[in-house]
Amino acid sequence: MNLTIKKKYLQDAIQAVTHAITSRTVIPILSGLKFDVEDNKVVLTGSNSDITIQTAIHAMIEDVEIISYAQPGSIVLPIPHFSEIIKKLPDETVHIEVQDNFKTVITSGKAVFTIYGQSSEEYPQIPIQENDDPLLLKGKQLETLIKQTVFAVSPTETRPILTGVHVSFEHNSIVFTATDSHRLALRSFPIDTADVSERESVVIPGKNLQELTKLITDPEATIKISFLHNQILFAFNETYFLSRLLTGNYPDTSRLIPTEKETTIHAFTKDLIQTIERADLLSSRDQNNVIRLDTLGDNMLEISSNSPEIGNVEEQLEAIAIEGEPLKISFSSRYMLDTLKTIDSERIQIDFTGTMRPFVIRTPEDENILQLILPVRTF
User: Fold this and answer.
1) For the chain: N or C, fewer Cβ within 10 A?
2) How many other CB atoms are there within 10 angstroms of residue 68's CB atom?
3) Chain mean position to CA 244
4) Which of 83, 100, 122 finishes a domain?
5) For residue 356, what are the contacts with CB-CB under 8 A and spacing of at least 6?
6) pLDDT tens sequence across 86-103
């Protein structure tokens, strides 16, 4: 194997696939990066059995020569050593030559590195193939679906199915839902295609979706999503992201969403975030960062917290409007801040159905986003 390639393109590709590589693997060879050189492109693969990332660098990109010489071959190279070497090479061009016994010589400018790889024949065969009817989303849409839901997945394996994001279909919309049983996040997008309601729902591990967002750099890129047996494949910009799916029955979250409301608060998102952040400073970590919200007259709110060993804080905030019954309620400041910081809207609407019932956060201009938080009982 012999290759001469521009450093920037190789470095970007390595950075992408290493998101799937970890030293903590039961298959030792997966701690390395699979490096395939073909006649007119280089294919890099990283996998940890949970996700697989594969990306290709073509010899010519928009009439610019990226690969000036290529002799086909395949090898598995050690990570992070290989990636760190490429990152720090002095020249814009890299030459890589694999010699006997997988000895790999990396040359750039006057720097010469020698590292030892492994035979790629020991690397697991991971078939990556799109299906005939992929779902199409823009990069920005997929990123929004993930960002506004994944924070609500369960961080523990007590109920493994809740560590994932539920992906379902209703009429002409795709719906992402996440819950840890204390809060719920739901985001949907209309799809420009025929009715998709017959597609089966799936559950994708939340941590895998977080890794996927790191690869979405072009908001206008078309992402093709293929639903495979026990796996899901995202394809975009010469990159493939393959994730396993969680098995089991996801709970019916629709019954958690209140259909009535007693009190509605309209507020500016930024003002509410900043006020809750200040109250959070003196909330008790031992009591789940609970803060309290009281409605006052003249569209005023009072947000307060108390930590017996430290002190307390009270702050009044003017809302845009307060409708309905007076309200006194307590909730986790961390849950509320996680929610508010994902909402891309200047204003929010919060609907309450009593002191101990879940409350719903929406945005006035977008009915496709819904966040739900369970209050906390205080004495």
Assistant:
1) C
2) 12
3) 15
4) 122
5) 375, 377
6) 999 999 999 999 999 999
